[in-house]
Structures are given as structure tokens and as C-alpha cells.
User: Fold this.
Amino acid sequence: MQRWLTSVASLATVLVATGPGSAADAAVVPALCASIDRNIAHAQNWLEAGDFKSLSQAASGMELLAAVLQSQGDDDTWQEAIERLVAAAMAVRTSAQAEDPAAAGSALMNLAAANTALAKLTPTGQPLPPPKAKLRSLMLLMDGVRGEAKIALIAGNTEKAKNQAHVLSELGRVVSNLRSGERWARLSDEFTAASLAAAKSPSLDAQALRPLLRVVSQRCDACHDIR
Assistant:
């Protein structure tokens, strides 16, 4: 019961502190870039296995992560770097759809380079609205991120688990664009807030973080129930 009360208190605190129009969190960009890096590694494995369908799905997820990064700021330097990232992710997807291993390998190298360059920057402009997304690509990406968070927690890597929660909080804003309606807006806001509560937890104890991530899963399931 005490852990549940702590989870609810953390969720309420974050919900108040991170309303609409809040400044971008400094931890968000590194978390998103790290997520792209992990997806590049997965994509490389799919390429080596000759699984172009999975490679294409991974590329779609990385395109969405790039779009989320694009929304972090409207300044020219940031947007120019993002354009290179988006173009490279699109090249991975199109080469996968064409089942061209040489082109896919080259595109993955370009994507890794563009992501490394982007990770060195900080957006200085005004945040943009969250991007639109296809339902299937968004759900596959979110499931993957949730899985990575659970694995990190089992391994005792709470920092990685909290980084994944940061990514989920940004994807929660994308979820809000999937449909209109007061109930959907409330559920997507609750999912975003729950993800932020886990991401911003001051504790490095896996046992303390576990109930917070459980709330994230519960909020995710609540959205599935009305999809």
C-alpha cells in the first residue's frame, strides 16, 4: 500500500509540474537519441538475418522517434540536423522495402552518424506540437520501449529504465493525436504523466521504480481498452 501511495504522489507532483507549454526537459533529447541507437542495433540484426519486414518496421519506429525529436525545438540549427536524421531513417525504410541489403547497410551507417551529430546539439527554439503517427507504427514502437524498460529494470539498470520512461512520455503526447474526445485526452494525459513520474523518480532503487512502471503499463492498457 505504501508503494502505491508513493506512486500516486509522484504522479500527482509530475502532472502539476509538466502541464501544456512546459519547457522541454533536458533529459528528453539524450533519451530519444539513445532509443534510436538501440533501434539501429536491432535493425542491424534484422539486416544481417535478411528479415526485411522487421527491418522496415524498425525503420518506421525510428522515423517516428526522429519526428518526436523534431518537435523539441523550431530553431534552424536543430531542424537542419533533424532533416538529415529523418532522411536517413526514411532511406532505411525504403531500402528495406526494396530488399536491398547494400543500400540498407549504407542507410543505417548514415542514420547512426546523423544521430550522433544530433545528440551533441540542444534545441533552443520553441517546442512544436507532437507529430502525427500511424497507429501500428506507434504501438509497435511503444511496446518495444516498454519491453526495454522492463529488461533494464530486471538487470538493475534503473537509469536506462528511466530513460525509456522519458521516451514513453514523449510518445504519450503522440498518442493524444490519434483520436479526439475528452476521455481519450484524459487517458493519454494520464499515460504521459505516469511515464514522467517514472522518468523523474529520484530513486535509483529498482524496487522503488517497479510500481511506477507498473502504473505506466496500467495507463497503457486503459487506452487499449477503448481503442
Q: What stands out?
A: Confidence is low (pLDDT under 50) at residues 1-23. The chain has two domains: 2-23+132-226, 28-119. The radius of gyration is 17 Å.
